[in-house]
Amino acid sequence: MESVIAPHISKTPGVCGGRACIAGHRIRVQDIVVWHEMRGYSPDEIVDMFPGITLADVFAALTYFFDNRPEIEDEFKKSDEWALWLKTNVPSKIPAEYQGDRGG
Description:
- The chain is built from five helices and three strands.
- It has helices spanning 29-38, 43-49, 55-67, 69-89, 96-99; strands at 3-6, 9-11, 21-22.
- A three-stranded antiparallel β-sheet has the order 1-2-3.
């Protein structure tokens, strides 16, 4: 059963791991946060990247982030932990000569 947080944000079990997303899309709130807060894209630029979403969707995602910051920051932490586990436990299929210096 879908739980609509606001008209623009939903959390649906089995969709994007149950994380908060733009309603009707698989664009997570944390994706919007990365593009806006960390990469510096404006809300208009984000809408241009994904024509199926609206400015209201982007602002709702940012509002959700600021209202639920610990939840979204925990999602970032879990993603980082998963990436570290993968790097440590799953060998790369990219030949060594193409990997370059990856900082250790």
